[in-house]
Amino acid sequence: MVQPYKNEPATDFTVKENKEAFEDALKRVKEGFGYDVPLIINGEEIMTDDKYTSYNPALKDEALGHISKATTDHIEQAMSAGKEAFKAWRDWTAEDRANLMIRVAALIRRKKHDISALMVYEAGKPWNEADGDTNEAIDFIEYYARSMKDLADGKPVDDREGEHNRYFYQPMGVGVTITPWNFPFAIMAGTTLAPVVAGNTVLLKPAEDTPLVAYELMKILKEAGLPDGVVNFVPGDPKEIGDYMVDHIDTQFITFTGSRPVGVGIYERAAKVHEGQTHLKRVIAEMGGKDGIIVDADADTDLAAEAIVSSAFGFSGQKCSACSRAIVHKDVYDEVLKKSVELTKEIKLGNTIDNTEMGPVINQKQFDKIKGYIEEGKKDGTLEVGGGADDSKGYFIEPTIFSGLKSTDTIMQEEIFGPVVGFTKGDNFDEMLEMANDTDYGLTGAVITNTREHWHKAVKYFDVGNLYLNRGCTAAVVGYHPFGGFKMSGTDQKTGSPDYLLNFLNQKVASEQF
Questions:
Q1: Cβ 404 vs Cβ 381: under 8 Å
Q2: How many CA atoms lie within 13 Å of 335's alpha carbon, on the beta-carbon side?
Q3: Which of 186, 173, 169 is closest to 123 using CA atoms?
């Protein structure tokens, strides 16, 4: 009997045995670097002459693996494989598909440290962040498996005399999953296997910066016994194959997590009906945030500072849910700012192999972009701490706080996706709430207050998909905090929610007369 869902516990690295086990995993993973990664289409590994290389962002000259690049011809092969595999996969019972996914989760659990260690190298994740990423992947898979069992028989509808009615769900066909580099295992696994457990087949295009992590999932799916062609692995140049997959007449749905410009482009392209296309495509898009924490006049200032700093600088601020705006009441502004600066100065920045609290940003493009925003911040506000950047060996940027900003300043409006947070001051709660809402995004937010009336007001009017009281604005847990946002943060089809699988199912009614 399958046990009720519960989230995967974090590894306590203060325990000697756990620390040593992870150090062993880091050594074990490193020994294999330099290997070639194939495409996988209909279960067949395909090596191409045209490859690109995955590098360690903490040691930018360290090559980790060489990845075959898919062409549009490969996409056609993968589409054909997905369509053929769908014919049989859709006929598996929901329970059988779900049980296979539970087996996948069990295999990941056994290899947890090796997968997390790979993320330390390929994504520059700190140990605890990498461990959390792997745990969240397990959570997604376990949760969606149980969700599919709940949906297996449809939902009850009424019968009239002489009539029997059924309302049920059926899979759609072949979809495309385009995954991000910041949660290279959790989001990649969740957005790939949610449609799969619902009975669909998928073309998986991993993020260019973290393909080795995605390849680990492919190996686990094979070991678990997933039929060939159900998931086809097609890394490559997004300009060459990304638009082609979105435009393809056989693509039923696209799941995307990434930047706003790319997400908007996918949404627009998917709306066009091409010759020979017989359906409207669904787009499930998560496109980032500009997340704020409101600190009220009566707030616990120690709690506020910890919430801001942990939310701003976890994984170098490379989370769509990261706090990049601290909106603080004038009465406690100086105190919260001072305590936040003190906490920030304690953060150890360095190569995360050494279990540092903060590591590099992902690549040169992001490094240069974040540096540009830091220079912009110096024009509009006061640099309180950080601001340094060094790409001589890896892509390291110090955790950075600016004060004295207006909520309309550039670095308070545009998504930076790096370790930069700006402080602005408010006279009262209504003004702070207005400032919190004055961005194009609406993903996460938090309120630090002891005034219940203000919390009730925020619940109604703080325009974000995930809102938290007296804690940071990151670290949503699957099954507890369904995740997704409003406005330009995306389509708000909440991951880790009871409704998520409905994105990948058609609703059908069969009415039988007697």
A1: yes
A2: 14
A3: 186
The H or E element spanning position 175 is: strand 174-178
Looking at residue 427, the DSSP 8-state letter turns out to be: S
Nearest-angstrom CA–CA distance, 507 and 167 = 7
pLDDT of residue 500: 96
Residue 511 phi/psi, 5° resolution? Answer: -115, 120
Active-site annotation holder among 8, 142, 216, 286: 286
For the chain, the farthest-separated pair of C-alpha atoms sits apart, in whole angstroms, at 77
Q: Which of 320, 323, 384, 398 is catalytic?
A: 320
Residue 375 appears among annotated catalytic residues: no
> What is the β-pairing status of strands 251-257 and 282-286?
parallel
- For residue 488 the two structure tokens come to 């330009």
Active site residue 323: no
160 and 297 Cβ atoms separated by less than 8 Å: no
Please state the φ and ψ torsions of residue 455, each to the nearest 5 degrees.
-65, -45
d(CA 300, CA 304): 6
The rounded distance, in Å, linking the Cα atoms of 208 and 310 is 27
Phi first, then psi, for residue 387 (nearest 5°) are 95, -15
How is residue 150 written in tokens? 């709940």
The pLDDT score that the predictor gives to residue 290 is 97
Quick: pLDDT tens for 307-356: 999 999 999 999 999 999 999 999 999 999 999 999 999 999 999 999 99
Residue 251's pLDDT is: 98
- For 127-148, letters b (16+ CB in 10 Å) and e give bbbbbbbbbbbbbbbbbbbbbb
pLDDT (tens digit per residue) in 391-417: 999 999 999 999 999 999 999 999 999
pLDDT for the residue numbered 493? 85
d(CA 432, CA 169): 44
Is the separation of the CB atoms in 387 and 411 below 8 Å? no
pLDDT less than 50: residues of the chain? none
Q: Buried b / exposed e across 238-268, counting CB within 10 Å, b at 16+?
A: eeebbebbbebebbbbbbbbbebebbeebbe
Residue type, 155: K
- Helix 112-122 and helix 16-31, axial crossing angle in degrees, nearest 10: 60
| 361 CB-contact burial (10 Å; exposed 0-12 / middle 13-18 / buried 19+) | buried
Q: Quick count: other Cβ atoms within 10 Å of Cβ 276?
A: 7
Tokens describing residue 141: 């898979």
